[in-house]
C-alpha cells in the first residue's frame, strides 16, 4: 500500500477561513440567468420568476458571494438597460457571446435573487466600452441611500434601501484581445486607478479588484499585473486571477495535478504584487481575488464557434462533469484554502448551466453535477483557521507539471468547537493511498464525526437528468483512529473529507 503522512499543529495557522472563498459567478451568458436562475413560466418559479429549485440548490452548495453580471458580457453592458419597467427595457446584442440580451433581469432583480439566496454581491463594472462616469452612476444607483437622481430612481423602482455592495471588480479580463474594449496594461492601469479613486470619493471603504491576467498562459502574465499595480496600488485592494483546467488528450495524470498550477499561479501573483509594493515602499498588501476558476473544456469550445444566429439565452459551454473533474475541483479548493492568507475572495465560474455545478432543463428539473459535491462539503466543513501542512507523500511524474505529489490536502481547525477537518485528494490513477494524519497536538479525545469520499470505478462517470445521483458523496468507512493518528484510506482518483470532533 502507498503511504503518505502529515502532522497537524493548531499553532501553524495560515489564516482564518474566508467565507468569500466559496463564491460563485452569475454571468448574463448562455442559460445561466435565463432558464437558469430565472424562468418565470417554470412550475417551481416564485412570484419574481426565480426557480425555487435552483435557489435551494444554491443554498445547499453553500455559496457565499456571487460575481455579477460578467465576465466578458460586462465589457459591453449598459447597466441602465436592466432597470425600470420591464416592457421599456431594450433588447441588445451581446457581442461577447453572440446572443440577444432581453434585459428582463438587471441589478434590481439580481439583488432580490441574492437576498433570497443569502449571498453577497460582487459587482463588476464595464471598463471595456465605458468608464469612470458609468461606474459612478451604477454605484450611485445601487449604494447611495437617497436624495439623488439615481438613488431616487432605484427607490422608484421598488428598492427603498441601498444594496450596500462592498466588493467591486474594475472591469473584466481587459488583457484579452477577445474582450470588447481590450486595453494595454498602461491604458487599463490608468483607467482602473481613476475609476477606483472616483468610487472611493463616493464611498471610501469599498473593496476594489483590479483585473489581473485572464490566464497564466497569457504572454503578459506577470508584467500585466506589475504595470497595472504600478498605477493602481494605493487605490485597489485586490488583483484578480482567472484559471480553467481540463484533461487534454487523455492525460489524466497531469489533469489531476491541476492544483499544482493553481499554487504556481497564486505564488507568482503574490510575488509580483509584493514586488510592486516594495518598489513603491508601501506596507500595504494586495490580496488575490481568484474570481474565475473551474474545470472548463475550453478546447472543445474553441473548436466550436458561437452560433451564427442571434438568439436569447442559447446553450453555451454546458460542460458535463465527471468524477475526475470533481476530484480536480475539490483539489482546486484545497489550493485556494491553503493560500487563505492572500486569496481572500474566489468565485467558481459559473453557478448554473454554464460550466456549472447546477444544471437545469427549461420547464424541467434541476440537478447536481459531480463538481457540486466537493464544493458543497468544503463550504460546509471548512471552519475556523486554515492550518499549514507539510505532507510527506509519494510523487509521480506528469507531462505538464513535472513531479507532483500523489496526495494533496489541507486542514482547518475551528477553535470555537475544537473540530478539525481534513480535505484530501488521491491523484493516483491506479492505487489507493493510506494517509496518516497525526492529531496528537490536539489532545486525545478527538473522534471521527463524519467522513466522505467522492470516487467511482469509472472516473468518467457523470450525472444527468435521467440519473442525477449516479455520482455523489458516500460516507467513507475507511478511517481509523489510533493513538492520536487518523488513518484515511484514500481510494484511487478520489476527493475526501474527514471531520474530527470532541464528543
Ligand atoms: O466564465 C466564462 C468566461 O470566461 C467569462 O465570461 C470570461 O471572463 C472568461 O474568459
TrEMBL record:
<dbReference type="InterPro" id="IPR017853">
    <property type="entry name" value="GH"/>
</dbReference>
<dbReference type="Pfam" id="PF22848">
    <property type="entry name" value="ASD1_dom"/>
</dbReference>
<keyword id="KW-0326">Glycosidase</keyword>
<comment type="similarity">
    <text>Belongs to the glycosyl hydrolase 51 family.</text>
</comment>
<dbReference type="InterPro" id="IPR013780">
    <property type="entry name" value="Glyco_hydro_b"/>
</dbReference>
<comment type="subunit">
    <text>Homohexamer; trimer of dimers.</text>
</comment>
<dbReference type="InterPro" id="IPR055235">
    <property type="entry name" value="ASD1_cat"/>
</dbReference>
<keyword id="KW-0119">Carbohydrate metabolism</keyword>
<keyword id="KW-0378">Hydrolase</keyword>
<dbReference type="Pfam" id="PF06964">
    <property type="entry name" value="Alpha-L-AF_C"/>
</dbReference>
<feature type="domain" description="Alpha-L-arabinofuranosidase C-terminal">
    <location>
        <begin position="291"/>
        <end position="494"/>
    </location>
</feature>
<dbReference type="InterPro" id="IPR010720">
    <property type="entry name" value="Alpha-L-AF_C"/>
</dbReference>
<protein>
    <recommendedName>
        <fullName>non-reducing end alpha-L-arabinofuranosidase</fullName>
        <ecNumber>3.2.1.55</ecNumber>
    </recommendedName>
</protein>
